[in-house]
Amino acid sequence: MWDFLTSQFGFSIALAAFIMLGVILPSVAYCIYFERKISAWIQDRKGPNRVGPLGLLQPVADGAKFFLKEDFIPGHVDKPLFLAAPAIIFIVSLVGFAAIPWGGQWQIGDKLLEVQVARPDIGLLYIIGVASMAVYGVVVGGWASNNKFAFFGAIRATAQMISYEIPMGLCILVVVLTMGTLRLETITSLQAGGEYWIGFIPQWNVFLHPLAFVVLFITALAEANRMPFDLAEAEQELVGGYHVEYSALKFGMFFLAEYAHMITGSAFIAVLFLGGWHFPYLPWTQPEATGFFAVMCKMAVIGGKIVAMLFVMMWIRWTIPRFRFDQLMRLAWLRLIPMMLAMFVLAVLLLYFRLHRSALAPAGNLLILGATLWIAARSTAPITGRQLNMPEIRNEPTQTGAMPAEAV
Amino acid sequence: MAGVTEYVIVGAALFALGLVGFLSRRNLIVMFLSTEIMFQGVLVNVVAVGRLHGGLEGQAFGLFLLVIAAVEAGLALGLIVLLFRRRGTLDADAWSAMRG
Amino acid sequence: MSTATTYALYLVFALGGAGVYFMLPRTGRSRVLSGAVLASLAVFALLAVLAFGVIDPAHGSGYFYLFAVIALLGAGRVITHPKPTYSALYFVLVAVAVAALLVLQGAEFLAVALVIIYAGAILITYAFVIMLAQQSGSPIYDRQSREPFIAVFAGFVLMAAIAGRAGELPLAGETVDAALTAPAALAAQTESPANQQDDSAQEGADESNSLRMGVIIMVNYVVVVQIAGVLLLIAMIGAIALSRKKVPSDGPRAADVPLGEIGRKVKPY
Who has greater pLDDT, A7 or C182? Predict the structure, then answer.
């Protein structure tokens, strides 16, 4: 038994079970608690504080409630697909974890184990592929509900997810060009090793391509249907979007899948841009450290990065209002995609001249961001049709390059 | 790694199923789905036969095949949407007046 | 492949053809269940014939049978299901199973590309169009197939022809695999940007399928890549031109309409 557990295969299975059941599912449940606490903090309320100390048992009570409610299936739905949709969305949001490198290597006796469930050659593409399947849960759920609101939500979600996959892919391509590999563990160890830039900056990709990091974060929000992009479930317009007809545990699965998506996306971004399990100056999180304590440290570090990103996502949710649908599409197609295409050309040029790890990369990022903002500020196209009706802010096309004074 | 013949036969079976679907179904979209199934069969075959020649040419060819499939899907869907707007039905027989 | 195996294959194809014939949608008494039984029997018989007559037991893999079953049954459901939405979703299953078959053949990059392109992009747009066009129920043209017997017969003849010829392919895995490792040398000697990266990036990536694919595509077939790009561009323009709505030329312009009317009576664009 011990031999099996310390072989890579057995260890992968044990790790998968531990990560899924011991880490992801509880943390998904507690994400909801923290979401409510953070929203309360932002809105100057107290938040859940009745069940257990500080309301810490609230997720348990919520879970029990999900189990005990009546599991109602409306008569007009397409039953097989209606039942399949929550399963699809939940499974898809969980399998992406298999390729995430959680803690480098672990030395047990004379064996060196990878703390990673699967190490495919194409780990990065695997995660993109899994992420691209996520839309099926939404579409199938929306269509099978046989309800206009749900169907609108599904259509919105499809268009949104397909659109935001393109800038996401371009961001990832920038990383691939810089790192020269599709293996997530190699990407992590490349960021972890080496000298510090200017003496103290670790070689994380976020310092090389900050713009790609920000855009990837935005697209991760859109892919998870999170707040500024949660048009698929917009309560005010669509009641609840694609999960209107769902109740009890099936609704709970949709609900939990959203948080599982957020965690997957955060872990992915942490590996690509924030150095994964690496933390500067901490000897236990360097690639050479392989002891038990080092592995625990590394898992704590990547966990901390994920939690930090989750916090920013929740913060954004309770701060920024929802986009309108045409604004959402405009943001993807007219701003993010051209910007990321420019980033892609920049990365190719830098790679061609062997400067892909120099200070020219962040400088080029800033240049592209500045150019995009400049073009956006000069753009005279009306954002909405209504704008044309408002004489005081009517945008006249400018003859010269300068902005008219009254339009500023 | 496995042999070649069984993959060729499975690919051929997929291709034939696609052919049957294309010939017998009347819904335009299902007909195009059937052609996509034929593409899948061809893909399995191309990769399997490519292994006989020892290189990755088969896989490279498969990748270009995917490009063709994407092109075909884009144009086909555009055409289907156009046809659907004209007649309000996806029935292929609605267009049999063009039979000449 | 022996002659007996070939004839066994013909028999299996005939069985499968009968199954598909019964499963194809038709008006009148439904024979889907018996068709489904026949077709599943045919698929399992096919795998049995492959297992005993074709596959070299030393190189066989249980995963092949698993994913072949999923792919074939899924494909059968795509072409026989009366609801097009289900067809599209079964097709996703087929695409994933075919991707797994490609992984078994060592084509990992192609497999993931297949999943991303097919399942992630093409199929979802198909599903989109189907759901927009037919929100529920299935009209007569989905419940009735056109000349099912002739179609099945044509498919059967095609299968039999291919399977008859497939017997002439080499059987063994060894010769194939020995040749398969050769391109790694090509990848190592070819000058490419990815090859001149940091040494640590090269470790372990050297023999990877994606690196070799990259070298082959970007060195040997770079012109084809260009042509493929041009083709995609043309298709994009074509699709936009095809699906563009007619722009209303007359009617009130948005700027001339009183406040609040836009979006209610006048379209914003």
Answer: A7
Q: How many residues does chain A have?
A: 408
Nearest by CB: C105 against B21, B47, B54 = B47
Question: What is the number of alpha carbons within 13 Å of residue C238 lying toward its C-beta?
Answer: 17
Q: How many contacts does A have with C, using Cβ atoms within 8 A?
A: 125
Residue C54 covered by a domain: yes
Q: At what angle do helices A210-223 and A248-273 cross, to 10 degrees?
A: 170
Residue C161 and residue C192 in one domain: no
Interface test with A, best of C91, C200, C206 (most A CBs within 10 A): C200
Whole-number pLDDT of residue C223: 92
Same domain, C119 and C217: no
Write out the two tokens for B29: 């979209």
- Whether residues C13 and C119 fall in one domain: yes
Whole-angstrom Cα distance, residue B49 to residue B57? 10
Q: Which amino acid is at A51?
A: V
Q: Are chains A and B in touch, 3+ Cβ pairs below 8 Å?
A: no
Please give the average per-residue pLDDT across A5-19, as a whole number.
Answer: 83
What digits encode the pLDDT tens for the residues C18-51?
A: 888 888 887 777 777 888 888 888 888 888 888 8
Task: Looking at the complex, report in whole angstroms how far the Cα of residue B35 sits from the nearest Cα belonging to chain C.
Answer: 10
Contacts (Cβ under 8 Å, ≥6 apart) of A374:
none
Rounded CA separation C90/C94 (Å): 6
Give the pLDDT confidence of A15-55 residue by residue, as tens digits.
Answer: 888 888 888 888 888 888 888 889 999 998 888 888 888 88
Whether A and C touch (3+ CB pairs < 8 Å), yes or no: yes
DSSP letters, B5-58, are: HHHHHHHHHHHHHHHHHHHH--BHHHHHHHHHHHHHHHHHHHHHHHHHTTSSHH
Residue-range domain boundaries for chain B: 26-91
Q: How far apart are CA A332 and CA A218, in angstroms?
A: 10
Domain coverage including residue C220: 181-243
Q: How many other C-beta atoms are found inside a 10 Å radius of the C-beta of residue A195?
A: 9
Query: C14: burial class by Cβ within 10 Å (0-12, 13-18, 19+)?
Result: middle
Least confident of A140-154, A221-235, C102-116, C255-269: C255-269
For chain C, give the mean pLDDT.
75
Do C146 and C185 lie in a common domain? no
Q: Is A99:A12 a contact under the CB 8 Å cutoff? A: no
Q: Taking the domains of chain A in order of start, what are their residue ranges? A: 71-378
The CATH-assigned architecture of domain B26-91 is Orthogonal Bundle (1.10)
* CB interface of C with B, residues 66-85, below 8 Å: 68, 71-72, 75-76, 78-80, 84
- Is the separation of the CB atoms in A47 and A36 below 8 Å? yes
Tell me the sheet residues that pair with A113. Answer: A106
Mean pLDDT value across residues A167-193: 87
Distances, alpha carbon A336 to alpha carbons A4, A139, A315, C236, in Å: 48, 24, 22, 19
> Does any domain span residue C231?
yes
C150 in a structural domain: yes
Residue C228 is predicted with a pLDDT of 93
| Pair A227, A221: CB distance under 8 Å | yes
The ipTM value here is 0.90
The total number of structural domains that make up chain C: 2
Q: Which residues of chain C does A136 touch, with a Cβ-Cβ cutoff of 8 Å?
A: 89, 92, 119, 124, 127
Mapped onto helix, strand or coil, the DSSP state of residue C197 is coil
Query: A309: pLDDT confidence band, cut at 50, 70 and 90?
Result: very high
Instruction: Say whether both C21 and C122 belong to one domain.
Output: yes
Query: CA-CA distance, B33 to A310, in Å (whole number)?
Result: 40
Which of A143, A145, A184, A327 is best to mutate for the C interface (most C CBs within 10 A)?
A143
Q: What pLDDT is recorded for position A341?
A: 93
CA A44 to chain centre: 27
Using a CB-CB distance cutoff of 8 angstroms, which residues of chain B are in contact with residue C129? 29, 77, 80-81
Q: What is the pLDDT of residue C172?
A: 45
C99 lies in the same domain as C194: no
